[in-house]
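Illustration 12: Ethanolamine utilization protein.
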Amino acid sequence: IQLDLDPKTDAYVLALPASLPVRYAAVLTVINALVDFVARFPNPHPLLVVAGQDFGKALGMLLRPQLQQLPLAVIDEVIVRAGDYIDIGTPLFGGSVVPVTVKSLAFPS
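Figure caption equivalent — predicted structure in token form:
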């Protein structure tokens, strides 16, 4: 594995694969993997997860008890590729809508 960041100190978003099936068993597998990841790489930043699939609320509700006090946001229906940058805005409508901007190109300053 090659990482351009430090998973114990940097802020980042974990993107679930687009090929992940929308099934309960797959969601449970993701939950176990995320819980293991958080245990291996404790980080002071919130755990941010994006998925192209429409199961963010279910994933978040099932993941929340496993992570206890860790701040968590699971945002669905967001398509990203490796190297994309994501801007996450302030939640709207009581947290049911979150504005997201995906930046696919970055230019050095």
